[in-house]
């Protein structure tokens, strides 16, 4: 590895007493050694970075896989809930099916919650634009402005990150005295 | 970096004409340079390995996350299917619920299949111990031995790997002439 370097040497120093080919060679080798050692250190540091990034990538891959899968399952969950809502639990003909579907839904929600999927069902809570999407505003003197009056469709988070916002109706402050008060007067 | 090395030098050669402190130093530096360069090469090769392993880990993390999640969802799917099986589609009172549950099940299966989850429902197929688990054996002269006569519970694969075996009843060859033939003779 070092043989071709030897043939390259050119004496060019001014001080002939100390400037020998051997000293030139020593200086050259020292410089090369420095460079090679720095290279090894940089490679070791870079390897640390690669390892750390790899760990983060693994975590991200894990999260991302669950995020897509869980997100795609939400319409299935919606459909099951809608079926339960539409069936009358007091109808004796439907009771056992209704109970069966409720059991299935409970299993579904329990499984999702084991994978850190949580419902966003903010009825009566203050509107939070990070978790809720307003479909409509309604005046409602019985509520504080910006209260969720109705949840059209539940939202969901995964490990605290939003999978889907809750679709909601939000109260607003009356902009003016309501016209029907005038009519009654 | 190299100063302490200089003070360590001990002239110990036998050939005084060619064995100078400078030549010792050159030999030492060349050896160190070789070592440092090898170290840098090894680090670079190791980094390639770390990168490759990291890619595999990401793929595995992705698969593993889906595998656990999909596996845990199977009882939900079973429960939904059982509910549909137990409800009579010809009962007018149940028809709309039955249809709704079938729609929900279809959405569920479609979503699972988008994530490479596939049913193992081997009714009438040859028994395959890699995908099926035999719950019972039954003599059945109408079938080849080792045929799946009944699927108790469907199995599922994820990207071709088994998530859960199908629970099945398998036909076996009649071990002896059936006794009731003797009774009839």
TrEMBL record, chains A, B:
GO terms for cellular component: cytosol. It comes from the Bacteria. Residues 1-22 are annotated as: Disordered. Keywords: Chaperone, Coiled coil, Cytoplasm, Stress response. Transmembrane segments: none annotated. It comes from Halopseudomonas yangmingensis. Participates actively in the response to hyperosmotic and heat shock by preventing the aggregation of stress-denatured proteins, in association with DnaK and GrpE. It is the nucleotide exchange factor for DnaK and may function as a thermosensor. Unfolded proteins bind initially to DnaJ; upon interaction with the DnaJ-bound protein, DnaK hydrolyzes its bound ATP, resulting in the formation of a stable complex. GrpE releases ADP from DnaK; ATP binding to DnaK triggers the release of the substrate protein, thus completing the reaction cycle. Gene3D superfamilies: 3.90.20.20, Head domain of nucleotide exchange factor GrpE. One of its GO terms (molecular function) is adenyl-nucleotide exchange factor activity. This is Protein GrpE. Residues 26-57 form a coiled coil. GO terms for biological process: protein folding. Belongs to the GrpE family. Homodimer. It holds the Pfam family GrpE. It is found in: Cytoplasm.
